[in-house]
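Q: What would this complex look like in 3D?
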Amino acid sequence: NAGVTQTPKFRILKIGQSMTLQCAQDMNHNYMYWYRQDPGMGLKLIYYSVGAGITDKGEVPNGYNVSRSTTEDFPLRLELAAPSQTSVYFCASSYSASMNTEAFFGQGTRLTVV
Amino acid sequence: AQSVAQPEDQVNVAEGNPLTVKCTYSVSGNPYLFWYVQYPNRGLQFLLKYITGDNLVKGSYGFEAEFNKSQTSFHLKKPSALVSDSALYFCAVRENQAGTALIFGKGTTLSVSS
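A: Here is my prediction, written as structure tokens for the whole assembly.
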């Protein structure tokens, strides 16, 4: 059972470039999340989804876009990369039948924008 | 809006001593509370959660947490710390309402010395 899989693990982007961070889960979870982690700042919620076709903004959505065409996949898109988007990005998922289930995390994508 | 506060950036304890990592929360309804641990260059791992019932919750690796509704706190504890417990610890809260996301505190670094 793979759980939550994120690709790539590392990436260096130039300012203005675009890229998609991939996230896939094989646990049939409805809820999926994207967080970014910066030193001393904890995890900030970028976007989340409560099911296929439904997405919602989190605390820091500017500069990012998401889509959720299937239950399994929740890609995060950066259109015009900026140095402020240098961070570690984590994708997570949880079962939605009740609010009390824990989230499962991927291993993270370390992104550097230069 | 829901929020989580971890007032300590770092907690230092000697091996064998008890440890406490503090967390307070704010939600408008009933909270679901979680603790996660992150080891260097890894994703977050679930430790324990409070849903309802007994205020003392036991989790993985000998950790436990005490829910205090009047103080809106959910402190993480362990009777006897190990050097291997050294890591970054996150408290998280979710409101008991459909469509809400999991919100994290900024994290507390636990350092256990031998």
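A: To summarize the key features: The radius of gyration of chain B is 14 Å. The interface with chain A takes residues 6, 9, 32, 34, 36, 41-46, 49, 51, 90, 92, 94-107 of chain B (CB under 8 Å).
Q: Very helpful, thank you.
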